[in-house]
Amino acid sequence: PVFAAILVAAGKGTRMGGTLPKQFQQLGPRAVLAHSYDALACHPRIANVVCVVHPDDRARAAALLPPGTVLVAGGADRVASVRAGLAALPDAATHVLIHDAARPLLPRAVTDRVIAALAAGAEGAAPALAVIDALWQEDTGGTVARAVPRDGLWRAQTPQGFALPALRAAHARPLPADAADDVAIARAAGLRVDIVAGAEDNFKLTHPGDLDRAARILRARAM
Ligand code: CTP
Ligand code: MG
């Protein structure tokens, strides 16, 4: 198998705020995008990384990434950005890992588990964490209607990995209503997706304060 990766970095980071989208904000000595790119590009099993960015951010991204990095223009939503990345993968790739640029602290071991599942024949494999807290369905008006059983519920992460022909076929079908990520699209096409263990460090930078949390983790790793 030949593993390629798509790094989706074309979002605007509206929930995070700031003058630049979150993937271009600073995390320790480098921009978030440089961390998430290296997590993929430095993995020994990943042959190629395509980075999807908003056309407005192309020059900014190019300045942060190694010369010659393949940059493609993203779309209006994440699915459109993934599709732009799929169109730019090298022909030799047999499998693809799709990763959020907003998850800069991806541990090597998480990528290892996704790749191992695919190498063992899974059509898809993605990291996740079991839900720990109780879950509530809210009533109208901010009161608890009922508890929801959390057994068998998982918090999805990336990189989400797939056999490339199977994922391309899934993307060629009409989008499911809940097309939140590629696992949802793969499932709608009937693909089997293995759950592998994610990691707390692999959280998605979303809200103000998340960069401070990531910086603390980064400092702890350096000690
Ligand atoms: N993404 C993308 N293209 C889009 C939207 C999102 O490539 N049109 C990417 C983001 O850059 C991010 C990942 O998908 O790395 C996960 O999306 P999210 O965390 O929602 O990031 P944003 O959409 O940028 O943030 P927000 O929803 O707060 O605006
Ligand atoms: Mg978004």
From TrEMBL:
Site location (Transition state stabilizer): 15, 22
For the site labelled Positions MEP for the nucleophilic attack, the residues are 150, 204
**Any one GO BP annotation for this protein:** terpenoid biosynthetic process
Which stretches of sequence are listed as region 2-C-methyl-D-erythritol 4-phosphate cytidylyltransferase? 1-223
The superkingdom listed in its UniProt entry is Bacteria
The UniProt keywords, alphabetically, are: Isoprene biosynthesis, Lyase, Metal-binding, Multifunctional enzyme, Nucleotidyltransferase, Transferase
**Molecular function as annotated in GO:** 2-C-methyl-D-erythritol 2,4-cyclodiphosphate synthase activity; 2-C-methyl-D-erythritol 4-phosphate cytidylyltransferase activity; metal ion binding
Function summary: Bifunctional enzyme that catalyzes the formation of 4-diphosphocytidyl-2-C-methyl-D-erythritol from CTP and 2-C-methyl-D-erythritol 4-phosphate (MEP) (IspD), and catalyzes the conversion of 4-diphosphocytidyl-2-C-methyl-D-erythritol 2-phosphate (CDP-ME2P) to 2-C-methyl-D-erythritol 2,4-cyclodiphosphate (ME-CPP) with a corresponding release of cytidine 5-monophosphate (CMP) (IspF).
Q: Which family does it belong to?
A: Belongs to the IspD/TarI cytidylyltransferase family. IspD subfamily. In the C-terminal section; belongs to the IspF family.
The name this protein goes by in its record: Bifunctional enzyme IspD/IspF
Indicate the span of the full protein covered: 35 to 257 of 447
